[in-house]
Design goal:
The protein has 317 residues and is α/β, with parallel strands linked by helices. It folds into 2 domains: 168 residues, 3-Layer(aba) Sandwich (D-Maltodextrin-Binding Protein, domain 2), CATH 3.40.190; 115 residues, Periplasmic binding protein-like II (D-Maltodextrin-Binding Protein, domain 2, 3-Layer(aba) Sandwich). 38% of the residues lie in helices and 19% in strands. It has 11 helices and 10 strands. The strands form 2 sheets. A 5-stranded mixed beta sheet has the order 2-1-3-10-4, with helices on both faces. It has a 5-stranded mixed beta sheet with strand order 7-6-8-5-9, with helices on both faces. Helix 6 links the parallel strand 6 and strand 7. Helix 4 crosses helix 11.
Length: 317
């Protein structure tokens, strides 16, 4: 895999030598969440909070919305690398950096632990005439095509996943970008949007209540939590025509953190993610919580960066 054009991730996240001394962590750690309270990313932070507080580490969750991830991640990049402030980054931040849309670089952050990897699903409102995947594909193939919404503007992962779907289906659509999945759900329920691309974790409440109907899984296999919902592969379409762009959330610290402190934070968060309580919620809400860290996490971020940048280039053709 070519890496010459990638940001210098390794410079920002040194790996602790085995013989390094243990590092004491602060008793309070501020977690900057780039999205509004009540959303999927916020809930991940608060699940970690509930697990770590009884163990003596208090997470102070601060929601800093705006600019996709720009406001929160800019604050994090300017914070001292002393373990007192971390943030929850996502594929959205990777996409914005890949597109050059924000004045941030990946090497301003030290990746710690992957918190979640989410599948993508296509959903419609309960009153939608689109009942299933066949109906969605038929709508895409009728000019001028449906309106499809996702979190993020043009060029971000949601838009690129929809663009790949439309190209695979030989259809067309009008993209509508929203500041978050909650707005996508509300527009679908109100009948103002035809189809939405979301993470199940973002809208499971509306799915379970029947306000939203899942019509397709944009992955290669069916989800155990939705065994009756077919995949694109079953319709003869590729799930990732532009390359694998994972919808993931991962904890990051400001660059420049000492190796010992980096390892201590990583161990704290990885243990919380892999705990039975966190794993149970991950299974319930259909996301993977693998606790990936170290070079493996850096590689996953690098692969996503490359896939997103390649897809953005193809989208501009």
């Amino acid at each position: 895999m070519r890496r010459r054009n990638l940001p210098a991730l390794l410079a920002s996240a040194s790996i602790l030598p085995i013989a390094a001394r243990a590092q004491a962590l602060p008793s309070e750690i501020r977690v900057l969440v780039p999205f509004a309270a009540g959303g999927a990313t916020d809930l991940l932070a608060r699940r970690l909070q509930a697990i770590l507080e009884p163990q003596g580490t208090k997470l102070l969750v601060e929601n800093l919305t705006g600019g996709g991830s720009m406001v929160a991640m800019n604050r994090l990049a300017q914070s001292r690398p002393d373990g007192r402030t971390i943030g929850l980054a996502s594929h959205g931040l990777i996409g914005q950096i890949a597109a050059g849309e924000i004045p941030l670089r990946l090497d301003q952050f030290a990746p710690l632990v992957r918190i979640a990897v989410d599948p993508s699903v296509m959903v419609v409102g309960a009153r939608s005439p689109i009942r299933d995947m066949a109906g969605m594909l038929a709508a895409l193939r009728r000019a001028p095509g449906p309106t499809i919404g996702a979190a993020g503007p043009l060029g971000t992962v949601g838009h690129l996943r929809v663009l790949g779907l439309a190209q695979e289906a030989r259809g067309e659509f009008t993209y509508v970008g929203y500041p978050g999945a909650a707005r996508v759900a509300n527009e679908l329920i109100g009948g103002h949007l035809d189809i939405g691309l979301v993470k199940p974790n973002d809208v499971f409440g509306q799915i379970r209540s029947g306000e939203l109907r899942v019509i397709a899984v944009l992955e290669e296999e069916r989800l155990p939590q939705m065994p009756d919902v077919p995949t694109l592969r079953e319709a003869g379409l590729q799930a990732y025509p532009f390359g694998r762009m994972q919808l993931m959330t991962f904890a990051v610290a400001p660059a420049g953190m000492s190796p010992a402190l980096h390892e201590a934070l990583t161990r704290l968060l990885r243990d919380a993610v892999l705990s039975p309580a966190f794993q149970a919620k991950a299974n319930e809400d259909a996301y993977l919580a693998d606790g990936l860290s170290g070079e493996a996490l850096q590689d996953a971020i690098a692969r996503s960066f490359e896939a997103i940048r390649a897809a953005q280039a193809r989208a501009r053709v």
